[in-house]
Design a protein that fits this description.
This protein has 250 residues and is an alpha/beta fold. Helix content is 42%, strand content 16%. The chain has an eight-stranded parallel β-barrel, surrounded by eight helices. The longest helix is centred in the first third of the chain and has 18 residues, at 15-32. The chain is globular, with a radius of gyration of 17 Å. Bound molecules: 2-phosphoglycolic acid (PGA). 2-phosphoglycolic acid binds at residues 8, 166, 171-172, 209-212, 230-234.
């Protein structure tokens, strides 16, 4: 299985800064991205066409940060999976905790988005993860089980889904889950993917996300069951993001 390194730029960047960031990443990733490593940039929707043009015919791919569950319609401000595809995306993040919390997205909604993504030919990067309160109460495993059960797509080419385990308390906080907690949760997710959805071992990629930096990337990527990382703030710094891509080579 490939190692996936995904940069989630969130609501950062305008054309000038995005072009500079993507060009530096491309210089390095052009050399580093290989059969073994898939590098994906997820800029804000306004920059998707630009980044898709810059990465065209290179080993780097791009993706959206969210999509609507419907293919089209009277949904002011929304963007469909087909529109992302048309703009050059091949991936889309769905169910990020900032959307689950900030936009009250339910797992059922995330499920519909993931199915819409597959139907439009995109690979959904489906995020799950417990809050700090849930972890402290010993409910991390249950939360992730419930989220996966309710949000994994049931229709379409479901093995094209990528799952991202992102403990909410580790996102943007500088706090990273330790290697044994990561390995434990990834083993749990692998078991669920098999028992609930019938996937063979390592058929579906499972990434870790939450304060991934150059200093911890190699250790995280070495954890059993981790097939890549979803990177937020460090993906906005070309040097740091390239160092994380580099860590995947070793
Ligand atoms: P972070 O964000 O790397 O800034 O913690 C990760 C994410 O939100 O995917």
């Amino acid at each position: 299985m490939k190692t996936y390194i995904i940069g989630n730029w969130k609501m950062h960047g305008v054309r000038t800064s995005a072009r500079a960031l993507a060009s530096t990443v491309l210089d390095a990733a052009g050399r580093l991205a290989s059969q073994k490593t898939e590098v994906i940039l997820c800029p804000p929707a306004t920059l998707l066409s630009l980044i898709a043009d810059l990465t065209y015919n290179t080993p780097v791919r791009c993706g959206g940060q969210d999509c609507h569950a419907e293919a089209e319609g009277a949904y002011t401000g929304e963007i469909s999976a087909a529109m992302l595809r048309d703009a050059g995306a091949t991936y889309v993040i769905v169910g990020h905790s900032e959307r689950r919390a900030g936009h009250s997205e339910s797992s059922r909604e995330v499920n519909r988005k993931a199915e819409a993504a597959l139907a439009a030919g995109l690979r959904p990067v489906l995020c799950v993860g417990e809050s700090l309160a849930e972890r402290k109460a010993g409910r991390a495993m249950d939360t992730v089980r419930r989220q996966l059960r309710e949000s994994m797509p049931r229709q379409g080419d479901t093995k094209r889904v990528i799952v991202a385990y992102e403990p909410v308390w580790a996102i943007g906080t500088g706090q990273v889950a330790n290697a044994s907690d990561i390995a434990e949760m990834h083993a749990h997710i692998a078991t669920l993917l098999k028992s609930e959805f019938g996937f063979a071992e390592t058929e579906v990629a499972v990434l870790y996300g939450g304060s991934v930096k150059p200093a911890n990337a190699a250790e995280i990527l070495r954890c059993p069951g981790v097939h890549g990382v979803l990177v937020g703030s460090a993906s906005l710094n070309a040097e740091e993001f390239v160092a994380i891509i580099n860590a995947a080579q070793s």
